[in-house]
Amino acid sequence: MENFFEKLEPSYTFEIFPPKGNASTAGTYAVIDSLVSFNPDLISVTYGAGGSSRDNTVEITSGIQNKYHVCGVAHLTCVGTTRNELRDILNRLKANNVRNILALRGDLKDESDLGEFHHASELIKFIKDEFGNDFDVFAACYPEKHPEAKSLEEDLIHLKEKCDLGVKALISQLFFDNDIFCAWRDKARAIGIKQPIIAGVMPITSAAQISKVVELCGASVPERVRRFVNVYGHNQGAVKEAGIAYATEQIIDLLARDVEGIHLYTMNQADTVRRIDAGIRSVLYTRRYKSN
């Protein structure tokens, strides 16, 4: 299997989302056409709530892997999904030469939605038990703890359990405060988590995005970010400019702190990625050369 960690550190990766239902995938492929020009180490493809974009995730991840020859990572959630359904999806991915999975529980609206799986760790174990080493499995991590965890310490214990099942690498939930991320990374290392930890960064491109992000993942928002959103909030273009500048500075600082990878939540906005890429490229490659 392709191992993008054999490339120079730090890794440089993107996340995109597929269209829902029967909507055309043409727009998504246009985004991918642009993203591959930035030479990412992998592109991950999200999985809609309840599997609403399941078929598109399989198709697009396969295209990334086979058409563009970039490592494709398929998100896979287990909420409300049976073992037979997961087995079928995994067999389809395998048949299409997709051998990288980001294993997630998925968003939970109600306890009754859980079905046969209650935690991402159960999904990881299922993949390993059923398919052995056919897939490299990635897992998510939360620098400010999972919203449902009672404490950061409890969340780290559960993360260690996932890692011990044979996870290849960790991709972090988005965050805006690098100090918080680095302090959490030190705690993860202290309890024996050795997998590469890829830092998730989402550029802010609208004022509405902030409240939605906080609601979904509980990321804290630094005063500096709140300030530019409040001041420029009536002008989306100005918010986007400030958000791109902030994300660029955030990544440059993370690279200086020796992160093992940057994962850009692109929101399918290739132009935003282009702007950030232009700002970080020399720093990214300086780190890669130094690492070598």
What CATH architecture would you give? Alpha-Beta Barrel
Q: Report the C-alpha radius of gyration, rounded.
A: 18 Å
Tally the helices: what do you get? 10
The total number of structural domains is 1
CATH class: Alpha Beta
Q: Give the helix proportion (percent range).
A: 40-55%
- Unreliable stretches (pLDDT < 50, length at least 5) are none
Beta-strand content estimate = 5-15%
| Order of SSEs | EHEHEHEHEHEHEHHHEH
The strands making up the biggest β-sheet line up spatially as 1-2-3-4-5-6-7-8
Say how many strands there are.
8
The 3D shape can be described as globular
Largest sheet: 8 strands, parallel, barrel
CATH topology: TIM Barrel
**Structural class by secondary-structure content:** alpha/beta
Average of per-residue pLDDT values: 91
N-to-C terminal Cα separation, in Å? 23 Å
Characteristic terms for this protein:
single chain; 292 residues; alpha/beta; TIM Barrel; 10 helices; 8 strands
Describe the structure.
The chain has a single domain (about 10-290), classed as TIM Barrel (Alpha-Beta Barrel). Helix 1 packs parallel to helix 10. Helices cover about 45% and strands about 15% of the residues. The radius of gyration is 18 Å and the shape is globular. The chain has helices at about 25-35, 55-65, 85-95, 120-130, 150-165, 180-190, 205-215, 225-230, 235-255, 270-290, and strands at about 10-15, 40-45, 70-75, 100-105, 135-140, 170, 195-200, 260-265. The chain is of the alpha/beta class and about 290 residues long.
